[in-house]
Amino acid sequence: MNFSKLESSRQVVKLCKENLFGLSTMHIPGKIVVHKIHPQAEFPHKEKVSDATWEITLVNRAENRAEDETGEINEFGTGLQFNPPEGYFLEFIANNTLHRHGYMMPGLIIVERGKNGELIIPLYKFRDTDGLQLPFRAVQLIISTSLYAHISN
User: Fold this and answer.
1) SS3 75
2) Residue 29 has what pLDDT?
3) Which of 105, 58, 93, 64 minimizes the C-alpha distance to 77?
């Protein structure tokens, strides 16, 4: 693909989104399959081609909670299911500004090939603040390659 012929950076972002989610293949063999299973779900978002991560949006509270409990893990739905191609896995980490809202993500989430189900994000509310106003971009997606090895003693 010759990027010099593209008219704007928006076209480059669109092209990269198309490549990531399987409309064509440029860098990743195969495609990352993403299914929207909630009407308000938003596909992963990326501002610039050079960004290393895609933003993931929380769209609902698990178990239909009205508000979040301080000092507890609160689960949020993304309305999305992910299935990376063979040889890849997906990492989901907290957005670097999440703590400003009184929440933190306890660790990271890894999605491997063949793991189905909605991506649910657990967030620990550590400060008594207003709950997150949904939809809310709280998580980032990183695409990683799998290394296969045998572990022995």
Assistant:
1) strand
2) 64
3) 58
